[in-house]
Design brief:
- The radius of gyration is 15 Å and the shape is flat.
- The model has no long low-confidence stretch (mean pLDDT 82).
- 2% of the residues are buried.
- The chain is an all-alpha fold.
- It is built from three helices and no strands.
């Protein structure tokens, strides 16, 4: 946490650079509860491709308007 919005770019920037530097040493996987506003690729990385496609199909069928959207999840047709 930091004190003012003017610090956003610097504070978020170092965390993103650290994440990128450590990624090659990761064993993979994603913890979905703390993704924040990260790219769709992180949500996609949490599931194998077949499972991700099934989840998107379910979302398209049961929640096409993304009414349930306050958790970290995929949107209809794979959009967050």
């Amino acid at each position: 946490m930091w004190e003012s919005p003017e610090q956003d770019a610097a504070e978020i920037g170092w965390a993103q650079r650290f994440f990128s530097a450590m990624e090659p040493y990761s064993t993979g996987g994603v913890y979905l509860n703390f993704l924040g506003n990260q790219a769709d690729a992180r949500v996609r990385a949490a599931y194998d491709p077949g499972k991700y496609d099934r989840l998107v199909a379910l979302k398209n069928r049961h929640n096409p308007t993304k009414f349930f959207r306050l958790n970290e999840n995929l949107g209809p047709s794979g959009r967050r």
